Amino acid sequence: MEGLRWAFGCGFWQPTRHEWLLAARCVQAEERERIGAFVFARDAKAAMGGRLLIRKLIAERLKIPWNEIQLQRTTKGKPFLANPVFTTIPNFNFNISHHGDYTVLAAEPNLQVGVDVVKTDFPGSRSVAEFFRIMNRQFTGYEWNTIKMAGDEWAQLGMFYRHWALKESFIKAIGVGVGFNLQRIEFHTSPLHMQTGQVSKETIMFLDGDQEEAWTFEETILDDNHHVAVALGKPDMFGKYPAQVQENTNQEPPKFTLLSFKDLISSAIAMAPEDLTCWENFQIKQEKPSRQHQMSV
Q1: Which positions ≥6 away from 95 have C-beta within 8 Å?
Q2: What is the DSSP string of the chain?
């Protein structure tokens, strides 16, 4: 089984009544409740896309019927498959992320995996200089130098969010959550300029000043405003790769495939009767906040 990369344009999706009710029928009851609790339609669509991506992955790659898939969450909120199928693929890992207009998924049969997608945008009412000042502690001096040498303010923001995606992908891969000192990790990005659709794995990471050769980072530009980073690491977090896994990292990195809603539900089996309140709840949601909120510091 090979690694897999999927993206769903949740921000461009304007679900019809039929689509939303069908999607709601194809997720677990607790997932439906969680999605319904979102204040904004943007977030509900992103979360729904994420759940459908996970179920499609498990149904098609692990051959578990859609309606038999049991998803649970770790204490840190990360979804995982609760079905006992890991005898044949003991290190199967997947991770999802959503920001801006995309929900993305990365999956690997042998590696720890973390993925993060970010949208480059101006920081609301703050100036770029003030935004950078507030976020100062999240990056090392070397990283800030790379960010501020990128060009004009827009280019600097693009490099900022690129570094943020890299750090988040690593944090998600090792599963430590908040509280990890982001200055412990430093990224040396390469190439400095990427093209849309290009997948690069040249960027390297330093942990506590030492280069981490056993971690690989794939970077992709989905469009002019969205950057994705995928962290691939050893199963035992700070140990070494098994030899066969090390070899796999030298393969050509997979590209993100953009899926439609029809693609998302191509393997779906309804798990609940139609509930019109799901559509009524969704219809009254405002699309997004009137003022964009930045990532938490």
Answers
A1: 78, 105, 106, 107, 113, 114, 115, 172, 173
A2: ---EEEEE-GGG----HHHHHHHHHTS-HHHHHHHHT-SBHHHHHHHHHHHHHHHHHHHHHS---GGG--EEE-TTS-EEE-SS-TTTSTT-EEEEEEETTEEEEEEESSSEEEEEEEE----TTS-HHHHHHHTGGGS-HHHHHHHHTSSSHHHHHHHHHHHHHHHHHHHHHHT--TT--GGGEEEE-SSSS--BT-EE---EEEETTEE-TT-EEEEEEEETTEEEEEEEE-TTTTS---HHHHHHTTSPPPPPEEE-HHHHTTT----S---HHHHHHHHTSBSS-SSPPPPP-
What digits encode the pLDDT tens for the residues 89-109? 667 889 999 999 999 999 998
Q: How buried is residue 145: exposed, middle or buried, by Cβ count under 10 Å (0-12/13-18/19+)?
A: exposed
Q: What is the pLDDT of residues 214-264, one digit of tens each?
A: 999 999 999 989 999 999 997 654 444 443 444 454 678 899 999 999 999
pTM for this model (two decimals)? 0.90
pLDDT beneath 70, residues of the chain = 1, 85-90, 177-178, 235-250, 291-297
β-pair partners for 188: 204
